[in-house]
Amino acid sequence: MTIVVVIKIRAFHINVKTLLLITLFQWYESIYGKWVLKPYVIGISFIGQNQTFNVWWDDDSSRFVQISKQEMNCPIFLAGFIYWHYITSLLHGLFVLSIERIFACVFIANYEKKSRPALLFSLITMFFTLPTITTLISYHNIYPFLQSFSICFFSNVLAIIILILTFQYNNKLLERFMRIGNSTKYTLASRFQARENRRTFRLLFNFLIAAFFLVFTSLILVLLMVFEITPNYHLTYNYLLENIIHLYPLIVCPVIITSVDRYLMFFKKAFNINRRKTVPMKVRNSVGETDLYFSQLKMSWK
């Protein structure tokens, strides 16, 4: 339902909308990986010398499941790679969204008006490239666990710093617009983009709170399992980690819907929630803020 809402309702710039949709669609990578790997994890099917395996990492390569060339199974390797790609996408997604916010602030004068396909292509490429590189590093055990962990941790810390700095910059622009009033120094497009940036930051900061809980809780659980700090609770940690990763839409999707007024209105209308009778005159005169700005922009560009 969240995917339908994001597609149908025009609430953000096409770049933000595209990145949000990619993030939501990537959950199906998890479904595919889980569907293929689960029989080997719970012991219905076996690989190697009647071995089950866990999908998480281990610094000790001798504890890996040993597979001969005759036993190599391409669907298992593909499912494992896609599964890890989904996980690393969750870890790097916020960083790519923060990069998009930099461009939104830098090109504030014509970010909405001027189409930049190269920028969108670059953001999409980054969105897939960073997780793919991290997945290859972990999949082939190129770096020790702590180094790979540091890459993911640094990516999220840098994303938080970028979001805070761009948020402060955008707020200063809004304060400047309030001071100068209707001066022609800044175009209507600039004013609209600054307000859209504010709405986007509201979504991203709410998303950040949810992601902070999910991502860092997951990383802590992985640390506990890899270094066997409390080995007696290994199965419990694994169970919690599996649920956090695969059921993250139960937290992220409500955050997205409730963070955007137009999304929430569409959602309530679709499920007939809290529908009240209103005065017809008020309905005719009520125009959404976003629709108003788009109408003004359209007139100003003619």
| Mean pLDDT across residues | 77
CATH architecture: Up-down Bundle
Provide the structure class.
Answer: mainly alpha
First-last Cα distance: 36 Å
In the predicted model, the low-confidence regions spanning at least 5 consecutive residues are 279-287
Percent of residues in helical segments? Answer: over 70%
For the CA atoms, what is the radius of gyration?
A: 23 Å
How many structural domains are formed by the residues?
Answer: 1
Q: Please write the CATH class name.
A: Mainly Alpha
What characteristic shape results from the CA principal axes? elongated
User: Could you say what the CATH topology is called?
Assistant: Rhopdopsin 7-helix transmembrane proteins
Strand content: under 5%
Largest sheet at a glance? none
Secondary structure tally, helices: 12
Q: Report the count of strand segments.
A: 0
Q: Element order, helices and strands?
A: HHHHHHHHHHHH
